């Protein structure tokens, strides 16, 4: 009977301890599960924020690189404008010198004309005097009557003849000199006309380059504005990420606290059960343990492949000839026609195209107008790498470049120097009128 009572007491104690353990652990586990779920949500949010932050930082880096590229283009345009201005200054000096020389020649011609007129009037006066006084015979009689001897007579007659001949020779010399000065004046005026035409072209290029610079500066302002927006977005994302990190850390502390409560409850329940068991019976023991573990793993492999492509032939050689000048050249009007220019990467559009073709033994003229007639005109739909493409800039067909395929061309542009550019969108697409010339068969 006593034994029976002891067993019942032991069972009751075990049940009470078990009940405390089960319910206590259950409550803690439930709270922990809720906190874990909340932490997982925060971690997911952080991952999304971090992904957005990474993309924003990459976009910011791209924008900064774009600004740097725009700055380089503006610097190239500035170099081109400076070189063009130097050429304009030189041309203005030549025009001034030629105009001054033409003015001097005009003054010399006026003096000669006055001398001729004066001498001619003198001869007319003599002729009139001869006519009024009976002509040359009267003059000879005066000479005879006024002479003091035969020798004096001969001397006077020769003097009169010599004077008449000298007048005639002098007039002929003046007229010859006048003709020579007129020829020189015509040459200077022709030079002036050529310089005036060059000045008009230089002014057109300057206006075009100024427009390019303005466009680049507007683009730079837009990119800088976008950069500022991107930096503000990154600051917001970093702030959100920081707040979520703090929230995650707080949740981790709370989870650890709940787990510690769970462990403390388990220890208390085990201690109570142990005490009850010891007080009830020395021959009965009750132990319980529980543990769990989960493990998992996965592995995956991926294979990657890459593609490569290339180009060959004369067209490829022409296109690749100027690669060393990309990012290392300056647009200069009239450039590319001397070893000094070529060594220093100083080209204008036609100078670069002529030089590139010379690298494969094809001689092309060094002017845009002449290149229009240096090969066979084809339709724009038939163009292929190596063909010449023309664009309307400061004048019709004012820019020439080499088609590189894929809607791109390579040439010496005022904003970039030697570079690739797209002709399927933007400025060059708007100024391409379908003019294509083929020089390679």
UniProtKB/TrEMBL annotation:
Residues 210-229 have a biased composition (Basic and acidic residues). Keywords: Coiled coil, Hydrolase, Protease, Signal, Thiol protease. Pfam families: CC_PcsB, NLPC_P60. Residues 312-439 form the NlpC/P60 domain. Residues 25-122 form a coiled coil. InterPro entries: NLP_P60_dom, Papain-like_cys_pep_sf, PcsB_CC, Peptidase_C40. Residues 268-293, 300-314 have a biased composition (Low complexity). The keyword Coiled coil applies. Residues 210-248, 260-314 are annotated as: Disordered. Belongs to the peptidase C40 family. PANTHER family: MUREIN DD-ENDOPEPTIDASE MEPH-RELATED (PTHR47053:SF1). This is Glycoside hydrolase. It comes from Salisediminibacterium beveridgei.
């Amino acid at each position: 009977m006593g034994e029976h009572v002891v067993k019942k007491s032991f069972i009751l104690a075990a049940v009470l301890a078990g009940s405390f353990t089960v319910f206590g652990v259950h409550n803690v586990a439930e709270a922990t599960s809720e906190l874990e779920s909340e932490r997982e949500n925060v971690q997911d949010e952080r991952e999304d924020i971090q992904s957005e932050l990474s993309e924003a930082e990459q976009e910011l880096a791209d924008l900064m690189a774009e600004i740097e590229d725009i700055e380089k283009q503006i610097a190239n345009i500035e170099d081109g404008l400076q070189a063009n201005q130097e050429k304009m200054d030189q041309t203005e000096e030549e025009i001034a010198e030629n105009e001054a020389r033409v003015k001097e020649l005009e003054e010399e011609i006026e003096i000669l004309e006055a001398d001729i007129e004066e001498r001619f009037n003198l001869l007319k006066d003599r002729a009139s005097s001869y006519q009024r006084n009976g002509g040359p015979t009267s003059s000879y009689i005066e000479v005879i009557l006024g002479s003091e001897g035969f020798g004096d007579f001969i001397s006077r007659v020769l003097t009169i003849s010599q004077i008449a001949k000298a007048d005639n020779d002098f007039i002929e010399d003046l007229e010859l000199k006048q003709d020579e000065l007129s020829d020189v004046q015509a040459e200077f005026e022709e030079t002036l006309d050529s310089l005036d035409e060059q000045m008009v072209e230089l002014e057109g290029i300057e206006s075009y380059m100024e427009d390019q610079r303005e466009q680049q500066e507007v683009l730079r302002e837009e990119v800088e504005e976008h950069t500022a927006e991107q930096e503000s977005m990154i600051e917001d994302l970093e702030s959100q990420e920081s707040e979520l990190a703090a929230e995650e850390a707080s949740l981790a502390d709370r989870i650890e606290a709940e787990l510690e409560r769970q462990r403390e409850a388990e220890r208390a329940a085990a201690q109570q059960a142990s005490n009850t068991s010891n007080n009830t019976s020395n021959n009965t023991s009750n132990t319980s343990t529980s543990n769990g573990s989960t493990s998992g793993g996965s592995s995956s492999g991926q294979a990657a492949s890459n593609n490569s492509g290339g180009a060959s032939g004369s067209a490829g050689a022409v296109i690749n000839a100027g690669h060393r000048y990309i990012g290392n050249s300056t647009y200069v009007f009239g450039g590319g026609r001397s070893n000094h220019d070529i060594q220093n990467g100083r080209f204008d559009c036609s100078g670069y195209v002529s030089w590139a073709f010379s690298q494969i033994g094809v001689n092309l003229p060094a002017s845009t107008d002449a290149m229009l007639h240096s090969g066979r005109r084809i339709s724009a739909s038939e163009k292929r790498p190596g063909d010449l493409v023309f664009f309307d800039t400061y004048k019709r067909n004012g820019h020439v470049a080499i088609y590189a395929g894929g809607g791109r061309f390579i040439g010496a542009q005022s904003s970039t120097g030697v570079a690739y550019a797209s002709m399927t969108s933007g400025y060059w697409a708007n100024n391409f009128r379908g003019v294509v010339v083929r020089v390679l068969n």
